[in-house]
Amino acid sequence: KSILLINGPNLNLLGTREPHIYGHTTLSDVENNSRDVAASRNANLESFQSNHEGAIVDRIQAARGKVDGIIINPGAYTHTSVAIRDALLGVAIPFIELHVSNVHAREAFRHHSYFSDKAAGIIVGLGVYGYKVAVEHICLNFKELDK
Ligand code: DQA
Fold first, then answer.
1. What three-state secondary structure class fits 27?
2. Where is this site: Transition state stabilizer (predicted)?
3. Alpha carbon 35 to chain centroid distance?
4. Tell me: the pLDDT tens digits for 101-136?
5. Residue nearest (by alpha carbon) to ligand 1 atom 12
6. What SS3 state is found at 95?
7. How does DSSP assign 98-140, residue by residue?
């Protein structure tokens, strides 16, 4: 299987950014761990992080027909981006929406997501452990594309 992990704006600061909310694990730790978890299940995982909406749209489009599942933490774009939502629907790749923090326990503007109604699953508030859960779920339960 082939998995694409996408992290949106400010997640490059994971581990140092508001650690009381997001914890102390860095994004490169998350990416390396996710790749190792995938490899242990004979899957391939590529990671992408960008602070730019259009770059995320481009990366999703490039994955069309090439990956079996996407794990996306859209960061603040969760609450604003019709463009990223449309990209995911356009390539028709099933995806898991992930948030490190429990967005529902935070400000009201974080309670709405442009992704949740189209996600195969949503992981919220499990900290960086959520990434491991997402990778394992795709490995065990998503269908493999005919490539
Ligand atoms: C986040 C939650 C978002 O509301 C926030 O803008 C982020 C990170 C999370 O992982 O908890 O940047 O997606």
1. helix
2. 17
3. 13
4. 999 999 999 999 999 999 999 999 999 999 999 999
5. 75
6. strand
7. EESS-GGGS-GGGS--SSGGG-SEEEESSTTHHHHHHHHHHHH
> Is there a binding annotation on residue 79?
yes
Tell me, using a 6 A CB cutoff, whether residue 75 lines ligand 1.
yes
How many residues would you count in the chain?
Answer: 147
Which amino acid would we find at residue 58? D
Is the ipTM higher than 0.95? The answer is yes
Ligand 1 atom showing the smallest separation from residue 11 Cα: 12
Ligand 1 within 6 A of 133 CB?
no
User: Is residue 100 a known part of a binding site?
Assistant: yes
CA-101 nearest atom, ligand 1: 11
Residues 62, 59: Cα–Cα separation, whole Å = 5
Q: Residue 8 in contact with residue 37, Cβ under 8 Å? A: no
112 is in an annotated binding site: no
**Which residues, 6 or more positions from 130, have their beta carbon under 8 angstroms from its beta carbon?**
98, 99, 100, 123, 124
